[in-house]
Amino acid sequence: MQFRTQIPISKSNFPIDYNSKLLSIGSCFAENMAEKFDYFKFQNETNPFGIIFNPVSIDRLFSRVCNQELFEEKDVFFHNERWHSFDVHSDLSNSDRQELLETLNKAVTETHQQVKEATHIIITLGTSWIYRNIESEEVVANCHKVPQKQFSKELLSVDVIQKSIENTINLIQNLNPQINFIFTISPVRHIKDGFVENQLSKSHLFAALHNVLKIDKSQFTSHNYFPSYEIMMDELRDYRFYSEDMIHPNQIAIDYIWKLFNENYISQESFALMQEVDEIQKSLRHRSFNPESEQHQKFLAKLQQKINALGDKLPHIKF
After folding, report:
1. 61 belongs to a structural domain
2. Are residues 257 and 276 in the same domain?
3. Are 246 and 140 contained in the same domain?
4. Would you say the C-alpha torsion 13, 16, 18, 20 has a positive or negative sign?
5. In a domain, 13, yes or no
6. Do 109 and 244 fall within a single domain?
7. Of the candidates 179, 253, 188, 195, the residue with the CA atom closest to the CA atom of residue 53
8. Which stretches make up the GSCFA domain (predicted)?
């Protein structure tokens, strides 16, 4: 007997393996998945400009990256004793303007190269709600706690979102025609916008993204959709799968969604290597009651042998 509905997931025609180079961009759920890639030692770069929630800001960043448009002094501002950019997350903010510009421009240069070399790009869309700077009339990726009166809040239309996604795809493909896209909608609900407003926001993302995928599927088999939102809302429709805020997926949910991603988007040939990495990671986290004992020294020597053997097979893996 089945006591829950299960979301059907199509296997990727271009699965990820240990030779793949991944770039993950988007909401905080992108970071949850990236932690899994990092744990299993895949070649993955995540959110070089910090967490980005809306598709217009993602599009703006890729336009800058793909065209190698460096940040200038006019692109940053001073607020609450720190320098910020409205195009990036506050994690990158800095008390020194020049250091911020150097950090941002290094990210532009490095991400440009990563896009050229990537085999897969994973884009996680979070919300259709955006804040527009009233003075510049530009959509911001992050408000940096600037007073609310300086922004207008808007819900992006399906048409605007669709054009942003299409433009992002075109920018990336012009730089790297062989890249494989994996899109997903974040299962994190933006309840601060309101319950009805969150559903409306997600529905706009779904409509726009699936319009793009429906058009592109006839031309590109490398555009995939992974249903993380649907898994969370349907297979895991119970608050025991949420963290204490009752909004974000907890570790059990993240592990389960990763398991389904793993089964359908990672090559079976990589499973044995993932098992080796997992065993090493668990051993590295082991804490001995007697670190100086002969038994523990033998354990460490055997562990180092495993690390060296794996490094010989895959030189990019570092522990």
Report:
1. yes
2. no
3. yes
4. positive
5. no
6. yes
7. 188
8. 21-261
In a domain, 151, yes or no: yes
Instruction: Determine the Cα–Cα distance for residues 250 and 294; give it in Å rounded to an integer.
Output: 39
Which residue range(s) make up the domain with 135?
Answer: 21-266
Q: For 180-200, how does the pLDDT look when each residue is reduced to its tens digit (9 = 90+)?
A: 999 999 999 998 899 999 999
End-to-end CA distance of the chain: 43
Instruction: State pTM to two decimals.
Output: 0.94
Residue in this structure with the two tokens 């990236």, named with its chain if needed = 34
With contact defined as beta carbons under 8 Å apart, do 186 and 125 qualify? yes
The pair of structure tokens assigned to 261 is: 């991603």
Q: Residue written as tokens 């065209």? A: 67
- 239 and 317 within one domain: no
Helix locations, the chain, DSSP H: 28-39, 55-66, 97-117, 158-175, 195-217, 228-230, 251-265, 271-284, 294-313
Q: Is there a single domain that holds both residue 170 and residue 156?
A: yes
83 and 185, same domain (yes or no): yes
58: Cβ contacts below 8 Å, ≥ 6 apart = 25, 26, 52, 123, 125, 164, 168
CA-to-CA distance for 162 and 174, rounded, in angstroms?
18
Task: Give residue-wise pLDDT tens across range 258-272.
Answer: 999 999 999 999 999
